[in-house]
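FYI - complex with heme C, inputs then prediction.
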Amino acid sequence: MAKVVINDMKFPRPSIMIAAMCMAAGLSALQSQEEKPKAKAPKQATSNQLLMRDKLAQMNRILEGITLGDFDQVEKSARTLGMISKATSWHIVEQTPRYKRLSKNFQEQAADLERHAQEKNEDAAALDLVRMNITCTDCHQHMRTEAARGK
Ligand code: HEC
């Protein structure tokens, strides 16, 4: 007769706890990165990659600001994103016309968001955020296509 193995019900618990701890560590790492934007990141990341990662953090700050009705936060992050976008443009040497257009669009969208945050226009700000998200993806897709073409 086959032996019935009863799973130890306590077994999954530690892994859940570890997962929760990892998430908490990840979150606090993210937070401390936001608090000190100049914090050292892993050595292998280029300055452009660091700027791009900060973009991701700023987008999150915008979503948070809109969610909490904190328009100062939205305005600040929109302004930072506009500046980051200008800074990253200097790093990209061979800019295709499409890259230039997307970069300009992004900066205009960030400026719109900054203005809408000042006006506390939540609907317009939410729409600006969506448009910016699409521009992030458009540009990354464009870069991937370009990279693939270069191979
Ligand atoms: C006009 C083009 C353009 C736009 C718009 C753009 N990016 Fe990027 N992004 C790039 C390029 C180019 C790279 C590759 C950078 C590198 O590897 O040097 C990149 C890479 C990244 C990376 C990966 C960095 C890494 O560590 O490898 C992240 C994250 C990122 N972008 C976030 C964003 C977010 C978020 C937005 C929108 C808020 C955004 N980007 C908008 C051009 C753009």
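Residues 122-150 form the longest helix (29 residues). Helices lie at 12-35, 47-68, 71-91, 97-118, 122-150.
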